[in-house]
Design brief:
six-stranded mixed sheet; five-stranded mixed sheet
Length: about 190
């Protein structure tokens, strides 16, 4: 029988690899695999007399189902699995509004563009995004729920009419597929 001593089931990690430790019968071969990782990330170790193992396996963003299988010297096998969630860490969101300044008396279409990044600076794809626009003289204007593309980018256009002169703002709330959130704001001035 194979047992895992660390990490704990369902743990959140931020690293690209984890060490899985445990014990099994002396002389057994323990194989570890993460189907979510590129190439299936297969690794194995023949256990010494103490029956302990420590195997390193890559993890990708989101949930990772890590399978371990042990085969003893008599050919008997047992297996177990572990789920590890790789967290995105500190997310980034960069918001731009065009135009950021316009005449309150004019009808204007605002274009909001947002680029979201993961903790390592890569694009945050498939994140849900909600824009909110606050303009002098108008109530909050909220976008439908949108989703970032493969480059971590999303845009939304909204027509503005009937504004008053003053300062306002656009904001964005980004929620990663793991449930982590980040927000950003940008100023809007009506003259």
């Amino acid at each position: 029988k194979i047992t895992i001593s660390s990490p704990a089931q369902g743990i959140k990690v931020t690293s690209a690899t984890i060490d899985v430790s445990g014990a099994c019968d002396a002389g057994a071969t323990v194989t570890i695999r993460n189907e979510q990782a590129p190439g299936g990330a297969l690794n194995s170790q023949v256990l010494g007399t103490d029956g302990r193992f420590k195997l390193t396996v890559p993890v990708v963003a989101g949930p990772n189902a890590i399978d371990l299988m042990a085969t003893d010297l008599a050919g008997n096998s047992s297996s177990t699995s572990l789920t590890v969630n790789r967290d995105y860490g500190q997310l980034g969101a960069h918001l731009a509004v065009a135009p950021s300044k316009f005449a309150a008396s004019s009808k204007t279409t605002l274009k909001l563009s947002m680029h979201a990044t993961t903790f390592n600076g890569g694009p945050l794809a498939n994140a849900t995004v909600t824009f909110t626009v606050l303009i002098q003289g108008l109530g909050p204007i909220v976008s439908p729920e949108l989703m970032t593309d493969a480059t971590g980018t999303v845009t939304w256009e909204v027509a503005i009419a009937g504004a008053s002169p003053g300062t306002g703002a656009a904001s964005v709330l980004v929620t990663s597929p793991m449930g982590d959130q980040v927000s950003a704001t940008a100023g809007i001035t009506t003259t």
